[in-house]
Design goal:
The chain is an alpha+beta fold and 407 residues long. The protein has 17 helices and 14 strands. It starts with a helix and ends with a strand.
Length: 407
């Protein structure tokens, strides 16, 4: 498709949309409006309100431009993670090392995790992941269809996460369910809190379980890790494992559902990927840019500072809207178009700076395994549109609750 045609969708002006203007003035990324009119909101913000202050959730600044967000994410002295990275703070009193610490303190926790989740080690998992994805799809073949989220993406992410940690993989749903409910806002506040408390109790039991500590997984490696004559404490390991569970159980599974839905509505692109499977990794990078599973994270200003033409006071919260930065036309040509041939696709879906997502290498190979298996087994799948349900809250993770297809 010619570049001129690709750009036509980007030319729409939203200056007259009073609803979007009103929403942006009191921005709330956890609202149904943000979910339902997601790209319209991002387009409007980039064009007309790249920096806004909202009173939602106690008040915070929202940044949409690529360069502003990169500046914030790279300046750990001025923008701290230690008061939390999610607005509002998550239920259940959760702390997750190393992301809840600033450099240099965070580096002591990142080092062992970076080694365990390196791109090379994660690429070595490709055959194992593909085999698991093939089996999950085959188990639904006789039914004539499946739910890409419930039957493929969630069990794939859940099983491999527990397998890597050295935990009994058949228990994956007991870990995944409370995490999904809290992330996507499913249930009452009391139910979500109770679910996350139960989840944290499971994690605490895992890191203290002598069998798991000798199972050869990441939990064992964290127990054995020593740096400068010091080993990690049980509490530190518990916090790190909580992060591994949450990151492993949510981001990739959300991406698989969203990307499969897009391909279900783009038959020409799907056929191109079926005929040329070697294009899938670069296509996934473009999908990650346009359909970012990780929407935004926050920081807290440690001093008065000016960014993007506004003055931020010490102690104020700032939200880095990764999803908006990925559509910044100063960084990406025809940003709202899906172009799998795009060059220099340095999107911010996995963040940037000292807190770049540790699990990005694993997420990439999980997504590739799931989509490759799906396209090979059901190249002509059709979406069951009336059964597709988007998550009620996409403020942290953007994805579907259910995404049924027919083979």
């Amino acid at each position: 498709m010619a570049t001129a045609n690709l750009c036509r969708a980007d030319e729409a002006s939203l200056t007259g949309d009073a609803e979007i203007k009103a929403f942006v003035e009191n921005f709330d990324h956890h609202s149904s409006f943000f979910r339902d009119r997601h790209k319209e909101v991002l387009r409007y913000m980039l064009a007309h309100a790249p920096v806004v202050h909202t009173s939602a959730h106690g008040g915070f600044w929202v940044f949409a431009r690529y360069d502003d967000i990169c500046r914030i994410a790279k300046d750990d002295e001025t923008f701290s993670s230690e008061d939390g990275i999610i607005i509002p703070k998550p239920v259940g009193g959760l702390t997750t090392l190393p992301i809840d610490r600033d450099p240099p303190a965070s580096l002591a926790y990142r080092l062992p995790l970076n080694q365990m989740l390196s791109p090379g080690k994660m690429k070595a998992l490709k055959p194992e992941l593909r085999d698991l994805a093939d089996k999950l799809i085959a188990a639904k073949r006789a039914e004539g269809g499946m739910d890409v989220v419930l039957d493929l993406a969630q069990p794939l992410a859940g099983i491999i996460t527990l397998r890597l940690l050295g935990v009994e993989e058949n228990d994956w749903f007991a870990y995944a369910d409370p995490v999904h409910n809290a992330t996507f806002g499913k249930g009452t506040q009391e139910e979500m809190v109770a679910g996350m408390i139960g989840f944290l109790q499971r994690v605490a039991q895992d890191v203290r379980n002598p069998q798991i500590a000798k199972a050869g997984g990441m939990i064992q490696k964290l127990h054995e890790h020593e740096a400068k004559g010091r080993r990690l404490t049980i509490e530190e390991i518990q916090s790190m494992v909580s992060l591994l569970y949450i990151g492993g159980l949510d981001t990739a599974q959300a991406a698989v559902g969203t990307f499969a839905a897009h391909l279900g509505r783009a038959p020409a692109l799907r056929k191109r990927l079926v005929d040329n499977p070697d294009l899938l990794p670069t296509a996934i990078e473009e999908f990650l840019r346009v359909m970012a599973p990780q929407q935004a994270l926050s920081r807290t200003a440690t001093r008065d500072v000016e960014v993007g033409g506004v003055r931020i006071a010490k102690g104020e919260k700032v939200l880095m809207l990764w999803a908006a930065a990925n559509f910044d036309e100063s960084r990406f040509s025809c940003p709202f178009s899906v172009d799998i041939d795009r060059k220099d696709n340095r999107h911010l879906t996995f963040g940037i700076g000292a807190h770049t997502c540790l699990g990005a290498p694993l997420a990439r190979v999980e997504i590739e395994a799931a989509l490759a298996a799906l396209l090979a087994a059901a190249p002509d799948y059709t979406l069951v549109e009336d059964g597709m349900k988007f998550a009620s809250d996409v403020g942290v993770v953007f994805g579907y609750d259910t995404m049924p297809i027919r083979f």
